[in-house]
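Figure caption, in words: inputs first, then the predicted bound structure.
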Amino acid sequence: MPSPPANGLSAGGLAGETRTVWAVEVRDCTTRELPQVLGLWDAADAEPTVTDDLAGLEALLSFASGSLLVALHDDVVIGTLICGWDGWRAAFYRLAVAPMFRRQGIATALVREGERRLHQWGARRIAVIAVESAPAAVPFWIAAGYVPQTDRSRLVKNLTGRAVADDPDIRAAGRDARPDRGRADRGGWRAE
Ligand SMILES: CC(C)(COP(=O)(O)OP(=O)(O)OC[C@H]1O[C@@H](n2cnc3c(N)ncnc32)[C@H](O)[C@@H]1OP(=O)(O)O)[C@@H](O)C(=O)NCCC(=O)NCCS
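Bound structure (coenzyme A present):
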C-alpha cells in the first residue's frame, strides 16, 4: 500500500478536522492492472461473487473495453468501478476503494466519471445493487444521489458448466444462427 503522497494537500473540513487530498487519476483499467483489481477487492472486503477472477475480468474488458474504471495513486490501483451498459439500462458494479483512501471523494470521482461515460454511451437510467451488510454502501449511494427502490426484488442465478461462448460447436454454428440463441440457452441471463 502506498504511503501518503509528497504532493498531497491537507484540506480543511469541519472545525478542527483535516483531510488528506490524494493525487488520484481515474481512467480505464488495463489488462496488466487486473491482478491489482482482484487484490483491491480482497483488501476492500468487497462481497465476493462468481465472476471475481482473471478470466471474468479479461472477458469483461474484451466485451466492453471501457467498462472497468480504476482510480490510481502512484500507479497503484486504489479504487474500482464497473460500468455496465446493455443498450437499455445501465448499472454500476464493484465500487470499491482501498480502506486507507476512504472519505476523500475517490468513490465519488469514480461514479461521476462512470455517469459521464454511461450518459455518453446513451444510458438514461443507472441501477446499483448496494450490499446491505456493507456499512458504507447505502449511505454512499444515497449521498451520490441514488434513490432506494424498495418495491422490487433482485433475483439471481449462478451458471455452472460450460459456457456458450466456450463451446466451439455453438460458436461455429452461432455466427449464422439466431442472434438471441445464446441468450435463450443461458436461461435468459445476461452478464452483469
Ligand atoms: C463505499 C465506498 C466505495 C465509499 O468510498 P469513498 O471513497 O470513501 O467514498 P467518498 O469519499 O466518495 O464518499 C462520499 C460520501 O458518501 C458518504 N459515505 C461514504 N462512506 C460513508 C460511511 N462509511 N458512512 C456514511 N456515509 C458514507 C458520505 O456522505 C461521503 O461524503 P463525506 O465524506 O463528505 O461525508 C468504500 O467505503 C468502500 O470501498 N467500501 C467497501 C466496499 C463497498 O461497500 N462497496 C459498495 C458496494 S455497493
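The chain has a mean pLDDT of 82.
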